[in-house]
Amino acid sequence: MNVQLYLFLIIPTFILAFWAQQRVVSTYRKYSQIRSRSGITGAEAASYVMRQAGINDVEIVPIQGELTDHYDPTRKRLCLSQHNFGGTSLAALGVAAHEAGHAIQHKVGYSMLQTRMALGPITNIASRMLPLVVFGGLFFHFSGFILLGVVVYAILTVFQLITLPVEFDASRRATVQLDSLGIIESDELPGVKKTLNAAGWTYIAAFVSSLSWLLYFLAASRR
Questions:
Q1: Catalytic: which of 44, 59, 66, 99?
Q2: Model pTM?
Q3: Sequence-ordered list of residues with C-beta below 8 angstroms from that of 107, at least 6 positions apart, any chain
């Protein structure tokens, strides 16, 4: 392991990822305590947003965990963590509308979402190869595993790069729809935006991490 290169490229990404995670958790918990005046649940907000966009074939279901919310385009299923499914907080409405934003992207054929979906299978394969890359390339410096690390992290970096516009566009759609439908009032909008902006930093951190590892393995391949 090139210690200096590791300290320069990788350690800062751990710090950024930790900071981003702490920020999203603290911001989410803050605004999950502030009830919206409308009293609408996250599930209802997602339903209203999707119906406004002409989407009537997406199932909204509760799932276990915290911040496990996601939209599954293959099953046309919008999954909300239980706190957000039945919650009426600003955080719940923001997260639910964000996931509904992905459903809208799917309906209109948003190109970045389609590209991310197409990259999904190869990205899953690359992710499963990470243990081989870490032990074979990072610790034992086997040249074949170092080159594999370059390929794996190149795929992950591209995937994370494409994820950025997908997530930020979904957040933009969410805030616009919540405001235009009257689900939240104008003075409640900053709380929703702060929740979604904090979540956005986790995607930035994931991209920076993948890019840093890619640069690390590229440098190692030239030694």
A1: 99
A2: 0.90
A3: 53, 54, 55
The per-residue pLDDT for 157 is 97
Q: DSSP labels for 69-123?
A: -EEETTTTEEEEEHHHHH--BHHHHHHHHHHHHHHHHHHHT-HHHHHHHHHHHHH
The domain of 58 spans 3-221
For the chain, helix (H) and strand (E) counts, in that order, are 9, 3
The pLDDT value given to residue 19 = 97
Domain count, the chain: 1
Q: Which residues of the chain have pLDDT under 70?
A: 1-3, 5-6, 136-142, 223
3-state secondary structure of 40: coil
Tokens of 161: 């790069």
Known catalytic membership, residue 44: no
Rounded to the nearest 10 degrees, what angle do helices 90-108 and 111-128 cross at? 100
Does residue 194 contact residue 34 with C-beta atoms inside 8 Å?
no
Nearest to 177 by CA among 93, 111, 108: 93
